[in-house]
Amino acid sequence: MKPSRNFEDLVDLVAILRKECPWDKKQTHQSIKDNLIEEAYEAIEALDAGDFDEFEKELGDLLLHVVFHSNMASETNTFEIGDVIYTLMDKLIRRHPHVFGETIVDGEDQVAENWENIKLTEGKKSTLDGLPGHLPALIRAQRMQEKAANVGFDWPEWRQAWDKLEEEIQEFKETLNQNDPERSADEFGDILFSMVNVARYFDLVAEDSLRKTNRKFEQRFRFVEEKLKEQGKALKDSTLEEMDKFWEQSKKEES
Question: N or C: which end of the chain has fewer CB within 10 A?
Fold first, then answer.
């Protein structure tokens, strides 16, 4: 078999692997579910790095999982790849009546509102249905807020969201003197949720912002470690002043 650009060839290739490769034959939906999550994060990492060659490869890995899971499901007559494609197309057509029907919309906000309302007619009990509980907390907070905003549950402007953030910060500060870890955790969570809300008004994605800061911290911290190592020192043998000096140096080199 040789590589091609044909989707059906990929489906055939996966079917062959499933029948003839000992590792592929052994897998189940459960055994590779974490790999699906891993591949999604690798795709995001490549995208954030602006590495579109790698991004292309990671999208391929994601596609492999879609085809592989569909192949396994076909073995038990649960569904097959054609059902996956049909269900997706049916949903997209149904939720875009402004493209495939007679509905008239006035901008993307109305599209988002219609999307949520159509989902409710499909049997969803809540606008928030469909958000996986295992999503990273910042992503889930932002998606919940976006969904609520799409149906009108939102502050009119960012300043009111900011006032709410300041209120939550004050409540958290008050708990720090009360020796109540559980309440402090609750109030801290409220701060994070409110910060996500403020960010949303400026089209900032909280998860992306924190991921960027994490990378920045890691680069600077590794720089500090390396500089101390060049002096024959370990972190535990260095003062905070020494570490901070290299920290500031790393910031200057970045700029």
Answer: C
